[in-house]
Amino acid sequence: MSVLGNFIGGKQVASNSGRTATVFNPATGEKRFDVALSSADETRAAIANAQEAFASWSKVTPLNRARVMFKFKELVEKHADELAELITSEHGKVFSDAKGELTRGLEVVEFACGIPHLVKGEHSLNVGRDVDSYSQMMPMGVCAGISPFNFPAMVPMWMFPVAIACGNTFVMKPSEKDPSTPLRLAELLKEAGLPDGVFNVVNGDKESVDVLLTDERIQAVSFVGSTPIAEYIYSTASAHGKRVQALGGAKNHMVIMPDADPGQVVSSLMGAAYGSAGERCMAISVAVCVGDEVADKLINDLKTEIAGMKVGAGMNPDEPHMGPLVTREHADKVLSYINQGVSEGATLVVDGRDFVVTGNENGYFVGPTLFDHVKPGMRIYDEEIFGPVLSVVRVESYEEAVQLINDHEYGNGTAIFTRDGDTARQFTETVQVGMIGVNVPIPVPMAFHSFGGWKRSLFGPLHMHGPDGVRFYTRMKTITARWPTGLRAGAEFSMPTMK
Questions:
Q1: Residues with catalytic annotation?
Q2: Per residue in 374-417, pLDDT tens?
Q3: How far apart are CA 248 and CA 246, in angstroms?
Q4: Which partner from 41, 175, 238, 394 sits 20 to 30 angstroms from 135, CA to CA?
Q5: Full-prediction pTM beyond 0.70?
Q6: d(CA 212, CA 221)
């Protein structure tokens, strides 16, 4: 059985750490291969390669950096089926969802192709007599990315294309649960003409992560994962002088008003709650129904739709709606939440426990699960489950629904379904959440906007990709210049002012 290594200095490099983790096929439970858990020294070697490459890459013109991104986009599109198969075989999401993940990642690559425009800076003529000021957006240096298991292609592609296009070099630490896709992306970047050392992939665990957070050569760190780890990433890297964007967990609510279209609500909620088996930071895990009549109808409609769901291996020719969870350990964690919800008094309407897929009996499957009468204080409400578990909370008024959302520690995404423009507008203004959908269940911004939540869903001031992504991966240098003729400027001994 082979051991997956690293990509450093433009080539595949075997690890000599002697430590490995096992990568499984979630649909079958079968071992695929082992992946190296790199040592601190191997991580430092990747940083050294990136540091060496920065000297020349940062001098490459933005136009030529963009041309590499254009070629990379073409290659990812060419190999989209291959990449999607890798994602499905290691993460478990269905094939069409894996293709969708690649599309959302490519949108950021397309955004990065416009880097000559995005890093133009600013210029002011005659801020004083014969004095001009202009700003330059300079690359940071070596940047690092630490990505989660649920989007092995999309999240890295939300990080490195903008960073590299801005003139930085990059060290990527993917999840050890599904590491193949970032390595394949590294190969495609090299094929696109990216110089060796500009993009490096280090597989590993906390030992590698801690090097990325503390090594003085790393200038900026991007992270997506759970809130406890995001907080650790932010505090540790910030203490070592690094710029950090650390995106954490979520508990996304969908408010359903009495005037909402029932068919639109149910179809939207099915995909938002159960798509990718709920392993999305933007998944809707709480449906907030304003009024018992709304809740009763929603529960009945959801029961009917869930009964018709197909759950199975993501590569089946007759593609299911939902695949397995990523690992046995994570599936057991989700099952423990379902047990907890029952013990806390929530009404289990649809039970996803003991769910078996014929032909894939050893896969990590949890069936779609639905709870009613969920209340704040229950763990299934308070905590991020990251599985196919939807909780219905009943409230009496719009104001109570908004207060419910604003009181929660997470503020990543939310949605409201209504036909009333006044209600929707008030919701977008008052709800304390970073990304909001109006009759849109998963309001992930397009690449030319920025992605990020509020409260304990984001640590750091700058969001990911879009304008904030460019700001994150650059630092401003402002020049004020005067070119006098002869010596007419003379000498000044008081505080300089623009005259």
A1: 281
A2: 999 999 999 999 999 999 999 999 999 999 999 999 999 999 99
A3: 6
A4: 238
A5: yes
A6: 8
